Backbone:
C-alpha cells in the first residue's frame, strides 16, 4: 500500500474525525513531513480534507472521491478482490468482461465517475454523467447452477432497495424486473450478465452492473422528467455496502428467501400493467411474483399468464 493509499484508507475509516499526523506517519512508517506533503497532494486531487494544528487531519463528510482504498475502508480487510476506479470509461460491465477475458479469477469491483456508453437492458443506454451517480459493476463467482443464477437480478434489486432505504429513509420500489423507483421516478438500473459453463450447468462468473442516480442536476430535461435521484451518499461506502450484501446473498441464492422482500418492494403487484406477447397487446392486473421471478398476471378476460421477461408498462396512478 502506498502512502497515498494508506492515508485515504485511514481518513475514510474515521471520516469526520481528526487523525493526528503522527498517528498517520507511524502507521505508514514515514515522517510527518511526508504525510503533510501527501495530504497536500490529496487536497489538490479534490479530497476535502481539513487540517488543524494540534488536531490533525480529517476527511469531511461531503468529500466524495472514488478510490480503491476508500472502498476498501468499508470492506473486511481479509477480502481478496480486484478493485478498479476510473474517472471515465465506456462501461464498467465492459471493463469487467475485459478483465475476465484477460484471466481475472477473483471477485472484483469496477467503478467510474462517468460512463460514455453506459448500458441498460435490451441494448439501451444508461445515462451516466460525471458527478451525478454511482456507476459500478460487481464481479462474483457464486457456486450456483444456471437455473439458480437467474435470481441474481432480483437479489440485487432487493439489496439496492434495502441499502437506499436504510441510508436515505426514502421508500424505494422495484419495477419488475430490475429498476428501482422512488416517487414514481427511476433512480437505479441493474444489468446482470453471466459467464457460464453450459456443459457443467454452472455459472463461472456473474457480472452485475448497477447505476444509481444521486442527482439529476446535469440531466437533460427529457431525461430528468422520468429520472429521479436518491440524494448525496458517500459513494465509497455505498459501493462497499452493496457489494458485501450482494456477495452474502449469493451464498444462499437457491433458497429464494429474498423473494419475500422483492414482493414487499414491488411497484407492480396489484397494479394494472400493459405488455405485448406473441404479437398481441394485453392489459392485465399483476397478481404476484413467483419465486423464480416470473410476474403472474390476470388479463381482463380472466386469462392467467406468467411473464418470464420482456417489458411492461405500469399505470402508476392506480
Residues:
Amino acid at each position: 500500500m502506498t502512502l497515498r493509499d494508506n492515508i485515504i484508507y485511514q481518513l475514510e475509516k474515521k471520516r469526520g474525525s481528526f487523525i493526528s499526523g503522527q498517528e498517520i506517519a507511524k502507521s505508514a512508517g514515514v515522517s510527518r513531513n511526508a504525510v503533510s506533503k501527501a495530504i497536500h497532494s490529496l487536497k489538490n486531487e479534490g479530497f476535502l480534507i481539513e487540517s488543524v494544528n494540534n488536531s490533525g487531519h480529517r476527511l469531511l463528510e461531503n468529500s466524495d472521491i472514488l478510490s480503491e482504498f476508500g472502498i476498501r475502508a468499508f470492506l473486511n480487510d481479509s477480502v481478496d478482490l480486484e478493485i478498479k476506479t476510473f474517472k471515465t470509461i465506456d462501461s464498467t460491465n465492459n471493463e469487467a468482461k475485459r478483465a475476465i477475458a484477460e484471466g481475472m479469477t477473483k471477485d472484483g469491483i469496477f467503478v467510474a465517475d462517468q460512463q460514455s456508453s453506459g448500458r441498460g437492458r435490451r441494448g439501451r443506454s444508461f445515462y451516466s454523467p460525471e458527478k451525478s451517480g454511482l456507476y459500478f459493476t460487481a464481479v462474483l463467482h457464486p457456486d450456483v447452477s444456471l437455473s439458480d443464477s437467474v435470481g441474481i437480478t432480483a437479489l440485487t434489486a432487493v439489496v439496492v432497495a434495502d441499502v437506499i432505504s436504510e441510508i436515505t429513509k426514502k421508500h424505494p420500489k422495484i419495477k419488475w424486473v430490475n429498476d428501482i423507483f422512488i416517487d414514481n421516478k427511476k433512480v437505479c438500473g441493474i444489468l446482470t450478465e453471466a459467464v457460464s459453463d453450459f456443459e457443467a450447468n454452472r455459472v463461472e462468473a456473474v457480472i452485475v452492473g448497477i447505476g444509481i442516480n444521486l442527482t439529476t442536476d446535469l440531466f437533460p430535461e427529457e431525461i430528468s422528467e422520468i429520472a429521479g435521484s436518491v440524494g448525496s451518499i458517500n459513494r465509497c461506502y455505498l459501493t462497499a455496502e452493496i457489494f458485501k450484501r450482494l456477495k452474502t446473498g449469493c451464498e444462499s441464492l437457491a433458497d429464494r428467501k429474498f423473494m419475500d422482500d422483492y414482493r414487499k418492494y414491488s411497484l407492480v403487484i396489484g397494479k394494472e400493467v400493459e405488455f405485448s406477447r406473441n404479437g398481441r397487446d394485453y392489459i392485465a392486473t399483476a397478481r404476484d411474483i413467483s419465486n423464480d421471478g416470473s410476474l403472474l398476471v390476470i388479463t381482463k378476460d380472466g386469462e392467467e399468464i406468467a411473464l418470464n421477461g420482456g417489458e411492461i408498462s405500469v399505470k402508476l396512478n392506480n
Notes: The two ends are 55 Å apart (CA to CA).
